[in-house]
Amino acid sequence: MTGLNTNSLLLAIFAILGILMSNNNSNMVAGCIEDLQALKIYCGIFLEKNMARSNPSPACCSVFLTLDVPCTCEHITKEIEQVIDMGKFVYAAKYCGMPLLPGIQCGRQLSLLIKIT
């Protein structure tokens, strides 16, 4: 998959996620939608699957430092995991000074990744 196709798929997945989440508790979910959009905008290139792992930018780190992790993790779907490398998500959080606690459930596999990274 080319970078352009991956970016298009990433944008589509986050758009669908935003629509699905807008039907839930609007106040709590609004912040989560903003977090997910900020992840897409500032961290997407660092989290993509099939791309070399690189250190996140300062702008990406600022997103991680203000991220509502439980809300974000609750809304990581199988479709999102097809585009985002959850290992890179864990790495970026740790690199940015916000290591995720062992046992946190984020997507389908994050709790396993935290134990092995």
Description:
The protein has 117 residues and is mainly alpha-helical. The chain has one domain (3-116). Helices cover 66% and strands 0% of the residues. It has seven helices and no strands. It has helices at residues 3-21, 26-47, 58-66, 69-74, 78-81, 86-95, 110-116. It is globular and about 30 Å long. The termini are far apart.
Number of helices: 7
Order of helices and strands: HHHHHHH
Portion of residues in helices? 55-70%
Assess the beta-strand content as a share of residues: under 5%
Mean pLDDT: 76
The count of strands amounts to 0
Unreliable spans: 111-117
Largest sheet: none
Number of domains: 1
Taken from the alpha-carbon principal axes, the silhouette is globular
Radius of gyration: 13 Å
Question: First CA to last CA: what distance?
Answer: 27 Å
Category by helix and strand content = mainly alpha
Protein name: Bifunctional inhibitor/plant lipid transfer protein/seed storage helical domain-containing protein
Signal peptide: 1-22
Keywords: Signal
InterPro entries: Bifunc_inhib/LTP/seed_store (IPR016140)
